[in-house]
Specification:
By secondary structure, the protein is α/β, with parallel strands linked by helices. It contains twelve helices and 14 strands. α1 links the parallel β1 and β2. The longest helix is centred in the middle third of the chain and has 22 residues. The relative contact order is 0.17.
Length: about 400
């Protein structure tokens, strides 16, 4: 038995390549959620997780950002220096950094890593975190996305600028192919913005972006390369992809801008030899949490202004009577304690890879996975699941990048 909501009509976007990334636990790591991390996020440990992920067949690593995480750029630079192929996916936060400075930082990381930089544009966070950071738009959800559009426009313009500095232009807010060094917008006024060095990747490092609100999706359609979603049942994800494809179509029809997106999914994984062992291990992750902490977390999650977190809340509440099971091998129990992409794929390697393939079949080509603790779980996934994924993808004529 499982809980699931059917949303949207069937729409399959053909995936030709699939790629898998892992998560670096820069706030600490351990077997349990809801207690103090058992392992500190030391440089040695984070490098060990990154190197293990690289050996396991993962091609990139998400380095998170929040008030409890070590700085993504510091960690990303260190990881880059101790890996050979793993691409650091690091966060840029509009409103907290100049887009020109951000462009130069990203270009430097791209150059020094030999073209491995990937950029995650993070518009939101908890309102409290944004207040603590001094963001003047901390409590203005939609305005943060207006600012993000300008930020991403400026970022791309500076990276790809081929005109001489000093050419005047007005911010248009949509076209990717405008290469003008001066940006005049509501939130940014940039005169003769330039970037040195230029990025190694052409036209620029890929931009990852997530946001489930209407304005968030419109921002992704206009500027992102990869649209990220937190894990949800397949029908829910299919519906989001359909909505994004509709926004892309409208962008083309109304503004003549033809763009496409890759789609990414953020999820947790837990693989054991038997399904029974896997479910026992899943429940064990939250077994040490104080019930009072669970109630506190629930209240905090309810205050969010983030649409994607509200969707996670909805899944958790509607599945509570079914032990938080939301589909075959899909569990929302972690969302009792952690925000963000809390869905856990639970089962044997064959079951978990079958679930991943269901997402591939509806258009997901980028996966960001993690598990508790991250070092041991990435070893298990690389040993047990990667060979199966390679075979299952090959059967569908899909290339596993790096696998």
């Amino acid at each position: 038995h499982y809980f699931a909501i059917e949303k949207g009509d069937t729409m399959v976007q053909q995936v030709k390549e699939a790629e898998f990334g892992w998560f670096l636990p820069t706030a600490g790591d351990g077997r349990y959620v809801g207690i103090k991390p058992e392992r500190a996020p030391t440089l040695d440990y984070l490098i060990q997780v990154a190197q293990t992920a690289e050996r396991a067949g993962f091609t990139f690593a998400l380095i998170p950002t929040s008030g409890v995480c070590r700085d993504a750029w510091v960690v990303g630079s260190a990881v880059m220096a101790h890996t050979r192929t793993l691409c650091p996916l690091v966060a840029l936060r509009p409103g907290l950094i100049s887009p020109v400075l951000a462009a130069r930082m990203a270009a430097a990381l791209d150059e020094l890593s030999g073209g491995r930089a990937r950029i995650n544009i993070v518009t939101g966070s908890s309102v409290q975190d944004l207040i603590e950071l001094g963001d003047p738009l901390a409590e203005q959800h939609d305005e943060r996305y207006v600012r993000t559009k300008e930020f991403m426009h400026a970022l791309k313009s500076v990276w790809t600028n081929t005109e001489a500095p000093g050419v005047s232009s007005e911010f248009s807010g949509a076209a990717d192919n405008q290469r003008k060094p001066v940006i005049e917008g509501k939130y940014y006024s940039i005169q003769a913005g330039t970037c040195f060095p230029k990025p190694v990747q052409k036209p620029h490092p890929p931009l990852y972006f997530g946001g489930s609100s209407k304005i968030g999706k419109e921002t992704a359609a206009a500027y992102a390369d990869v649209y990220l979603m937190w894990g949800e049942p397949v029908p829910w994800i299919r519906e989001q992809i359909e909505e994004m494809e509709g926004i892309l179509k409208a962008l083309n029809e109304t503004q003549g801008i033809e763009r496409s997106l890759q789609y990414g999914l953020r999820a947790q994984v837990l693989i054991r030899d038997t399904e029974e062992e896997a479910w026992k291990a899943a429940w064990d992750i939250i077994s040490k949490a104080d019930p009072a902490l669970i109630e506190k977390a629930r209240a905090e999650f309810a205050r969010t202004d983030a649409t994607n977190q509200r969707r996670q809340n909805e899944l958790r509440e509607q599945s509570a009577k079914n032990d938080f099971v939301v589909g075959p091998n899909l569990w929302m129990g972690l969302s009792l304690l952690r925000s963000g992409g809390a869905i856990l794929l639970v089962g044997t390697a064959d079951q978990v890879t079958d679930r991943l393939m269901e997402y591939v079949d509806i258009g997901i080509s980028k996966f960001i996975l993690s598990g508790y603790p991250h070092l041991e779980e990435v070893e298990i996934f690389g040993r047990e699941a990667m060979p199966l994924l390679k075979r299952k993808l090959a059967e569908r004529n899909i290339q596993l990048i790096g696998g």
